[in-house]
Design a protein that fits this description.
The complex is a heterodimer of chains A (190) and B (122).
Chain A: H1 10-18, H2 22-44, H3 47-64, H4 74-96, H5 115-134, H6 137-148, H7 153-160, H8 164-183
Helix pairs in contact in A: 1-2, 2-3, 2-4, 2-6, 3-4, 5-8, 6-8, 7-8
Chain B: H1 11-19, H2 31-37, H3 41-59, H4 70-86, H5 91-121
Classes of the chains: A mainly alpha (190), B mainly alpha (122).
Chain lengths: 190, 122
């Protein structure tokens, strides 16, 4: 892109991609790849598998793009596809698994936070990320989708193929486990 | 750690711990529990811990991991490969189709001409 050339808006890119423009779609991938990869990493807790999930999700999105009507934001629609791809690929990998999936939960550092909270965040975040990685995948998925991405219970349940009640139970269990993992080594005091 | 099961804890402390993530705030607890929590530092700390946990989880929404550099190129290749199936067939295929069409048309014309000649002779 040359100097002075106006970047097309996401809507324009979507319109072009919907009519089969692979380059416009690649630009959408460039814009959304980090957020898609982050969600995938949080769901499957494995960088390599998360990369595969992200790739699969974008390819599914490309195929389904003609059906995208714009009722939800493109990123929201993309997130749903990531969850479905993560779940189906995780199941497939479980069938052929010979070794544990986790290579550690990788997140960016706390740089850039409000200085007032920095001390708290710096001490808590690494432990929180470690605690998240210790949750079972079904419990972690619910905690991630509800507490980080603010999905409604019903939508979480639909995408994970469980009942709304089961989603709520998993959320309760996940939060309790996180609490216990975070403050276990400190006893009842903080 | 199962502090909520610790028998040395007072009953009210255990009841509040049993609520776990549903603790909410002291103002949202049933009156007897709220009354206890307002004067129990241990229970107040428990409430604060769950609040911190929720706040930290929400804060993760703004954090992103950088995707591996191969992701974009892999997706671009895959997508371009798929869109190639949607574009018109290659030139060679079109030429073969045109030749086949022309041959069929010529054969039809020849058949009609032969039929007319046979009819005229009869």
């Amino acid at each position: 892109m040359t100097m002075g050339e106006v970047k097309p808006s996401e809507e324009a890119l979507l319109e072009q991609a919907r009519s089969g423009d692979a380059r416009a779609f690649s630009e959408l991938v460039r814009i959304h790849q980090d957020e898609v990869f982050t969600l995938a990493t949080r769901l499957v807790n494995d960088r390599q598998l998360a990369a595969d999930v992200s790739q699969e999700a974008f390819i599914r999105a490309w195929r389904a793009l003609p059906k995208f009507r714009g009722d939800a934001r493109f990123s929201t629609w993309l997130h749903r596809i990531v969850v479905n791809a993560a779940w189906s690929m995780r199941r497939a990998q479980q069938r052929h698994a010979v070794s544990p999936l986790s290579d550690g939960y990788l997140e960016p550092s706390a740089e850039g936070d409000d200085p007032q909270d920095l001390a708290t965040v710096a001490s808590l975040r690494p432990r929180l990320l470690s605690a998240l990685s210790q949750l079972s995948a079904p419990v972690r998925a619910v905690v991630v989708l509800k507490d980080i991405y603010d999905w409604p219970h019903r939508e979480i349940a639909d995408h994970l193929g469980i009942t709304t009640t089961a989603a709520k139970v998993r959320l309760h269990r996940g939060r309790k486990q996180l609490h216990d993992l975070l403050w276990a080594e400190l006893g009842s005091a903080d | 750690m199962k502090t909520d099961m610790n028998p040395s804890f007072p009953v009210m402390c255990r009841a509040i711990r049993a609520l776990g993530p549903d603790i909410g705030g002291i103002g949202r607890m049933p009156a007897p529990l709220a009354h206890h929590a307002s004067s129990c530092l241990r229970c107040q700390a428990e409430v604060i811990r769950y609040r911190r946990l929720r706040r930290e989880l929400v804060a993760l929404a703004d954090r992103v991991n950088s995707a591996p550099p191969t992701l974009l190129t892999n997706v671009a290749h895959a997508v371009q490969g798929e869109s190639a199936h949607q574009v018109p067939p290659p030139r060679r295929t079109r030429v073969v189709a045109q030749i086949a069409g022309a041959t069929a048309a010529a054969a039809s014309l020849a058949a009609v001409a032969m039929w007319r000649r046979t009819r005229a002779a009869a």
